[in-house]
Amino acid sequence: MSMLRRILLMNLMALACWQAAEAAIATSVPPTWQNQGARFSVQLTPLDGEQAEAFFENMGYPQGAVREVAAVCVFGTTIRNSAGQPVRYDVSRWRAVTTDGKRHRLITKTVWLARWKAFGLAADWSILPPRQTLQPGDWAQGFTTVDLPAGTRFNLNYEWKQDAIEHHAVVRGAQCAPRTSRP
């Protein structure tokens, strides 16, 4: 094989490896959705059932509790107060609105604790607190969940209070993670 052919073959192999690496990186980063411009922002990152299962198993949750949370739509959720004043929120007032116009309640930490009592769980730090006041610049993280099928698209209508005034915002086009199939 001539030197020119070797160089060309090496360049083609390098290009193929680079394209494969780019594709792997693109598929390994989960999508996120958030409301831009709101003084109280919500960012959602989906977890598929397998990821949720792995998290709760690693935290030592009983299998029944793990199965229950892995069966619903789970999001890693980050909330931020970029307002100049404290804000209060209540997850029980937030709704996932599916494309058919139906409004779905989120499953709050309070609801999860009531369900998990049957499995002997009385406390949890992983689900976003149901109600909280955030001071200016504060942020928090936790899981939010809604009982929707894998792959479902929805808008998250959420609200918060600042100086006793209720504010509303929407995270548009969020999507529950698709189900992963185990080999």
Explain the overall architecture.
Residues 1-23 form the signal peptide. Keywords: Signal. The protein has four helices and ten strands, in the order αββααββββαββββ. Strands 1, 2, 3, 4, 5, 6, 7, 8, 9 and 10 form a ten-stranded antiparallel beta sheet that branches. The longest helix is centred in the first third of the chain and has 26 residues, at 3-28. α2 packs antiparallel against α3. The relative contact order is 0.20. 28% of the residues lie in helices and 36% in strands. The chain is of the alpha+beta class and 183 residues long. The protein has two domains: 1-30; 31-175, Immunoglobulin-like, CATH 2.60.40. β9 (153-162) and β10 form a beta hairpin.
Quick rundown:
The chain contains 4 helices and 10 strands. It has 183 residues and is α+β, with helices and mostly antiparallel strands.
- CATH top level label of the largest domain: Mainly Beta
Task: Determine the structural class based on helices, strands and strand pairing.
Answer: alpha+beta
Strand percentage lies at 35-45%
In one word, what is the shape?
globular
Mean pLDDT: 86
Helix content: 25-40%
Low-confidence stretches: 3-26
CATH topology of the largest domain: Immunoglobulin-like
Order of helices and strands: HEEHHEEEEHEEEE
Question: How many strands appear in the DSSP assignment?
Answer: 10
CATH architecture of the largest domain: Sandwich
Number of helices: 4
- What is Rg? 21 Å
Number of domains: 2
Distance between the termini: 41 Å
The major beta sheet can be summarized as:
10 strands, antiparallel
